[in-house]
Inverse folding.
């Protein structure tokens, strides 16, 4: 697609247009697109499913790739193989259906499998590195590689995937046999906690900031008197201070401006630098 509105593909409902928007259906097509962008010197951006991402109002030049059509999930005994465009929530539900334990923590994470590996996603004491066995990626040259989890340098909300320019196309999770009722009870409990505490009624990028050592980002923001603070249509959530919501047709400029205001205020009041968990890409309008 040409001149596709990226706000239609991000959880924040922010972002300008992509010059070319592509949705490959096979690993080979992913490889071909990467090789084409290299040969023709066309800028290339992987969008993921847009859950932990802010796209600027000027959009993105060149090719933007979305992997939502790579969404197969297959189980073999205690192993689940999921393509990168599938939702990590759906993988956790597949595990429940097969009475496998280990992915309960992921039942409320809105991102794709690829995005979950990209940032070593986690919640409620669990993270991807606890259950990831291996992955398949396409590298900058368009080659398909098979890597072990150890080769991704998975740490708190980080991996080497962005630095090496990998495109995750598949992940293999190693789980354990468990009791269906116990797994479901834990998932129900975590879902309740998420829905009762998080502002799911408005578009957002999820948790904006990483947890600073020795603190909680949301508590620092709340204690800075920032809850309810608004720039244009973007607001620090009244329900959970760690979230910034698109309350009323915000622009990316307003949303990003509010992020900077929160960082500056917390730094001024408490001397703590809040590091963004959300990724910002794209261009400002010309």
């Amino acid at each position: 697609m040409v001149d596709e509105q990226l706000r239609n593909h991000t959880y924040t409902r922010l972002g300008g247009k992509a010059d070319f928007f592509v949705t490959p259906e096979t690993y080979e097509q992913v490889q071909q697109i990467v090789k084409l962008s290299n040969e023709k010197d066309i800028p290339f951006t992987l969008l993921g499913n847009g859950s932990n991402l802010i796209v600027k109002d000027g959009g993105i030049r060149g090719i933007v790739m979305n992997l939502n059509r790579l969404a197969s999930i297959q189980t073999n005994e205690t192993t689940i193989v999921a393509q990168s465009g599938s939702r990590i929530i759906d993988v956790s539900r597949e595990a429940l259906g097969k009475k496998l334990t280990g992915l309960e923590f992921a039942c409320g994470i809105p991102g794709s499998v690829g995005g979950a590996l990209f940032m070593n996603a986690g919640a409620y004491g669990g993270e991807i590195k606890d259950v990831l066995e291996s992955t398949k990626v396409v590298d900058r040259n368009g080659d398909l590689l098979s890597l072990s989890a150890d080769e991704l340098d998975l740490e708190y909300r980080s991996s080497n995937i962005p630095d090496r320019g990998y495109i995750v196309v598949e992940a293999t999770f190693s789980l354990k046999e468990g009791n269906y009722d116990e797994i479901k009870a834990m998932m129900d409990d975590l879902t309740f906690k998420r829905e009762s505490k998080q502002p799911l009624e408005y578009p957002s990028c999820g948790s904006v900031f990483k947890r600073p050592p020795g603190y909680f980002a949301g508590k620092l923001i709340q204690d800075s008197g920032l809850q309810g603070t608004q720039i244009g249509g973007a607001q620090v959530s009244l329900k959970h201070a760690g979230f910034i919501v698109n309350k009323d047709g915000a622009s990316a400029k307003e949303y990003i401006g509010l992020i900077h205001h929160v960082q500056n205020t917390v730094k001024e009041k408490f001397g703590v630098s809040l590091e963004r968990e959300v990724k910002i890409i794209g261009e400002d309008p010309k």
